[in-house]
Structure prediction request, 243 residues.
Amino acid sequence: MKVIIAKDYEDGACKAADIIEKIVRENPECTLGLATGSSPVGMYRELARRCREEGLDFSRIHSVNLDEYVGLDGTHDQSYRYFMNTNLFDHINIDKANTYVAKGTGDVAANLKEFNDILDKTEIEIQVLGVGPDGHLGFNEPGETLYDGAHEETLDDSTIEANKRFFASKEDVPTHAVTMGMGNIMRAKRLIMIINGNKQEAATKLLIQDKIDPKCPCTFMRLHRDATVIIEKKLADEIGYKA
Prediction:
């Protein structure tokens, strides 16, 4: 696992964008695995700038997202389809017909079948990841069991608590999500995680400790053949990590 220490959030965003740009230029018809949350926003902003100002071409790129809230339509301003449109897709020359975010409304079982069918026939060139304070990846919550394929997950209270800032109240936060499984994530050819903010516990378990732990799903990144972690210097210093 390769670890890059970034000076700050913007530096980390640019370093992550460099990796994505290289892949897009070398393989302009590849599929990108994308993520939501605060961690990749800066990277998306930088990729949009490079598309607009430097000719970075997404016209033949496909994408598939990690997850979606159950119960939110794609037009809801807290859905992950809406997030991807407003933070990236509306600002680059990608064909939205080539972008996939799992459906959050309707028949959950049917939605999961569609999600799994797409994942089964898709080779993800690189999967972008953030990480929850408890170490979850996508919405794969800590526990005794992790799932291979896309599935419905009941969200931990800590996840709901962390996400309530985006909603009018905690009661408005969805309690379930559909998410790629850990197997889907690990089958991507490459992984890139951007880790910043108050993620001391997850960062320590990933970078300092030596245990692969289903109670901290991000530790499974250690097993991947080509994984990169970009961490802010401030957070690296807080956990005592030295490259």
